[in-house]
Amino acid sequence: MSTTTAVTPLTTSDAEALVAAAHRAAEAADVTVSVTVLDAGGHLLAFRRDDRAVLISGETSTRKAFTALQLNAPTADLVDAVQPGGPFHTLPTALDRPLLFIAGGVPVHRDGRLIGAIGVGGGAPEQDHGFATAAVKALA
C-alpha cells in the first residue's frame, strides 16, 4: 500500500499574494503590467491589469501563465525550444489557448509539485520574467 502526501493547492489568497508581489516589483521598476495567476487545472484564480497597461498585456499574461503551466517550466527557458530544429518547433497549437514562448510565465510549485502558474505581461520580457520570479519567491 503506497501513501502519498497531499499538497495544499494554490488558493485564492496565494494567487492574490502573487499578483500583489508582482505588481510591487513592477511598480518599483516603474513598469505597468498585467498579472494572471492560474491554478493547476488552468483555471483563473487572480488577475490584475494596471490602468496604464495596454489591453493586450492581459491576454499576454494569461498565455504566458498557461504556457508555463502546460510545460511546467518558466517560459524564459523555452524560447530556444521553439526555434527551427528545437523540440517544440512543431508542437501542435490545438490547445484551448495558444502557447506563448516569451519570458514572463513561471510555474508555481509546492512541496515539489506543480500547483499553478503566474504570467506577467507589459514590460520587456526579461522584466516580466523578473517580476514573476520575484512573486513566486515571495510566496515561498
From TrEMBL:
**Which InterPro entries does the record associate with it?**
GlcG_carb_metab_protein, PduO/GlcC-like, PduO/GlcC-like_sf
Q: What PANTHER family has UniProt attached to this entry?
A: PROTEIN GLCG, SLR1406 PROTEIN
This protein's name? Heme-binding protein
Q: Which organism is it from?
A: Streptomyces lasiicapitis
